[in-house]
């Protein structure tokens, strides 16, 4: 299959014949990456999607972090933190926290799974809808920023109280790694290949 790819850095158009397996092309003028696929099987990506959902469920069910001062321990969950923000009058902030840490990463995983499970041979628009959802959601799913924020807060609080990381920290960190890996394994080009040829 020959297609034209325009360099995202310098706008030079390239006519490229795409191989069936893993490949990587660079712009002939500025060496920016034009195209890259990993030749990963769709079933592997589906398995990663399922793992991500289980890890997110664990991340939401268990405490994120516990603070211990003398004999008093206070544990906070991810959703609990958003509820407290809402109760203190920071409704917009609570919504942003929930959207960027839970709802949008989950939407990204769900759209990818839906695309892979969509029946072949139907109208292309059916699968293309999920590509559009994924492209819109991906820049807003910022689980890695959240994990970094939690780590920074934990280090700063360590001088004031005993900080006990909860199960949620580990589960959510693993969720973040998987969501990031899914973004690398399923670039937009790969999504179209799955749509055309099946997973
Ligand atoms: Zn270029």
Describe the structure.
It is a single chain. The chain is an alpha+beta fold and 199 residues long. The protein folds into two domains: 1-37; 41-197, no CATH class. It is built from seven helices and seven strands, in the order ββββαββααααβαα. It has a three-stranded antiparallel sheet. The protein is elongated, with a radius of gyration of 21 Å. The protein starts with a strand and ends with a helix. The mean pLDDT is 84. Bound molecules: zinc ion. Zinc ion binds next to loops. Zinc ion is lined by residues 7, 9-10, 12, 27, 29-30, 32.
Counting DSSP E segments of at least 2 residues, the number of strands comes to 7
Q: List unreliable stretches of 5+ residues.
A: none
Helix content: 55-70%
Tell me the domain tally: 2
Q: Number of helical segments? A: 7
Small molecules bound in the structure, each named once? zinc ion
Biggest sheet record? 3 strands, antiparallel
Tell me the Rg in angstroms.
Answer: 21 Å
For the biggest β-sheet, the strand order reads 6-5-7
* Approximate shape: elongated
Q: Tell me the span between the first and last alpha carbons.
A: 18 Å
Percent of sequence in beta strands: 15-25%
Mean pLDDT over the full residue set: 84
**H/E element sequence:** EEEEHEEHHHHEHH
Q: Structural class of the helices, strands and pairings? A: alpha+beta
């Amino acid at each position: 299959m020959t297609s034209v790819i325009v360099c995202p850095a310098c706008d030079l158009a390239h006519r490229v014949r795409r191989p069936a397996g893993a490949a990587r092309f660079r712009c002939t003028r500025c060496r920016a990456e034009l195209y890259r696929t990993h030749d990963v099987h769709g079933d592997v990506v589906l398995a990663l999607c399922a793992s991500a959902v289980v890890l997110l469920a664990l991340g939401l069910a268990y405490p994120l972090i516990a603070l211990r001062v003398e004999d008093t321990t206070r544990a906070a969950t991810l959703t609990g933190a958003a509820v407290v923000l809402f109760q203190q009058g920071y409704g917009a902030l609570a919504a942003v926290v929930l959207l960027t840490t839970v709802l949008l990463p989950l939407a990204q995983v769900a759209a990818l799974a839906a695309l892979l499970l969509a029946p072949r041979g139907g109208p292309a628009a059916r699968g293309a809808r999920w590509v559009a959802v994924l492209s819109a959601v991906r820049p807003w799913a910022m689980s890695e920023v959240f994990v970094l924020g939690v780590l920074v807060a934990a280090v700063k609080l360590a001088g004031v109280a005993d900080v006990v990381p909860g199960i949620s920290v580990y589960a959510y960190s693993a969720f973040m790694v998987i969501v990031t890996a899914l973004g690398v394994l399923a670039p937009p080009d790969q999504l179209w290949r799955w749509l055309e040829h099946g997973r």
